[in-house]
Amino acid sequence: MIKEIIRKSLNGATLVKEEIASLFSVPLFSEESSMIIAASRKKSETASRGTAEVHAQVGLNVAPCPKNCAFCSFAVRNKVFSETREISRQEAIKKAKQFETDGANAIYVMSTADYPFEKFIDISGDIRKKLHPETILVANVGDFSKDQAGQLKDTGFSGIYHAVRLGEGRDTTIRVETRLETLENARQAGLILGTCVEPVGNEHSVEELVEKTIITRDAKPVYSGSARRIPIPNTKMAEYGVVSEARMAHILAVVRLALNYAIPGNCTHEPNVIGAAAGANLLWAEAGSNPRDTEQETEGKRGMTVMDCVRVLHEAEWKVTQGPSKFFSA
Ligand code: SF4
Description:
With 330 residues, the chain is of the alpha/beta class. It has one domain: Aldolase class I (TIM Barrel), CATH 3.20.20. It has helices at 2-10, 17-25, 31-47, 89-102, 117-130, 146-155, 176-189, 206-218, 245-258, 273-277, 306-315; strands at residues 51-59, 61-62, 85-86, 106-110, 137-140, 159-161, 192-194, 197-200, 223-228, 265-269, 282-288, 319-320. The strands form three sheets. Strands 1, 4, 5, 6, 7, 11 and 12 form a seven-stranded parallel β-sheet that branches. Helix 2 (17-25) crosses helix 8. The longest helix has 17 residues, at 31-47. It is globular, with a radius of gyration of 18 Å. The chain binds iron/sulfur cluster (SF4). Iron/sulfur cluster (SF4) is lined by residues 65, 67-69, 72, 74-75, 112-113, 142, 172, 291.
């Protein structure tokens, strides 16, 4: 049966939820699991014409965020950051320029959900002016209105990163509907979407993985994939431990098979060779703030450089795109 589901996916047919659940339920290191990973890699290579990308994110601030997502170091409840700290406009520009120089295929600007939107637009506009016109800029911010989506587009963003996270509305104070409205607002403004099944923890059921996988497929993004949750010390979520990279490779492979060929990208985070070998063709470098880190600036800590990510992709036998993201130019 698993062989048949894999063949159906590779032939370009859409998998139904029971089929996706069957793929998620296959035991790790079994013959069938190897078949899933091999098929995922094949589908990724076909969908992206054999190339992988490195995107790089500049986090503008750390702050105790009232949205209180249990998995995030910025959440008020996790008591990691008690005060707001922001990098300066000049620092943000410098970090974005550095990523451009290092060869990132797209540059993301991220802030916490309660960061003033006008300020985000203002600083992002200055970043945009200092980058080459062809450099792809992507926004990673909280939920936004139709009007704000238009402002992001007018500022020069090609797209957004946004996700209905695992545990949305249960482990966060944000409704699933609010996240979906934001995706629709972005779509109407002409912003391209990148998304992901994240942050995966050991406690998540196959049913929830399937549900979130289908949400990412229905959102018609240019990439989806899967990323694991990084435990924030002394938090409730930390008690669940961390999903192994081997299991994440299986999960991102199933997500790849559940998504159609029109979606070229398959992401994983944090970057690792086994995930990339299993079909992940998009990795992230990070600078500034990072919701998985307890340090104010993630460089040299959890955050990897563009060169680190390229090395991981090369170890996994991927050719890395030179120049602007092909995913976001799709
Ligand atoms: S994930 Fe985003 S919305 Fe949730 S607490 Fe962190 S910064 Fe706030």
